[in-house]
Amino acid sequence: MIKRNTTVEAMRILTPLAAVVLLAGLSVEIISGDNIHFTGWYLGVLPVVCLVFIVDFFVDCATNPDPERRFWRHLPFLLLSIPYLNIIRICGAEMTRAQAMAVGLVTMLRAFMAMFVVVRWMVRGSGPRRLFYAYIFTVAVFTYLSALVFYDYEIHVNPHLTSFGNAVWWAGMGVTTVGAAIFPVTTMGKIFAVLLPMVGMLMFPIFTVYVTDIYTRKKERS
Q1: What is the pLDDT of residue 51?
Q2: Predicted pLDDT at 2
Q3: Which of 3, 14, 68, 86 has a CA that sits 20 to 30 A from residue 190's CA?
Q4: Of 177, 210, 208, 207, nearest to 194 (Cα)?
Q5: Count of beta carbons in the 10 Å neighbourhood of residue 144
Q6: Sequence-distant (≥ 6) Cβ neighbours of residue 190 within 8 angstroms
Q7: Do residues 192 and 184 make contact, with C-beta atoms less than 8 angstroms apart?
Q8: pTM (2 d.p.)
């Protein structure tokens, strides 16, 4: 039992770290790369990170009281953990950069879910403050990821996008529902242009609850 609990705790730490490594690798790949081909080092990091996700999935199933039910209920997590880019490359299939990036986002979605472990730790217990921290974390990660995707898809076709800083500014203005003077021209860019304000509107009530709680507490003390 001790060994099993130790394994579970180790995976709870290792899996978010693997997600951070994947996000950092994708950042370097998009910001410093040619935005045309994925480099060999990134395709080397990807299967290692995916292996961590897969091990985490089977450890979670094995330590559950009902492993079979856990397996089928969480099967999408396993499907998202497969390094599809590497498999496609081994098979010799040809893809455009846009198609390859869309496939790569599948694994990035699994990484985002792994980072949600950190969010769950933030909201353990009661209190709006923990919920507020989780809000900040979720919005910040999603906004940054949106900026990465937007930059990768738009940099060669959007004349108004000149740097990654512009992409971050565009994503920030989008999530706050203010809007920016940079308009997407690709399909993926337009999709994220819709998703960003939706995330902002869904998360804004949490911010309102936090501010209201602070005001109420101060009023009660006075």
Answers
A1: 92
A2: 41
A3: 86
A4: 177
A5: 16
A6: 184
A7: yes
A8: 0.81
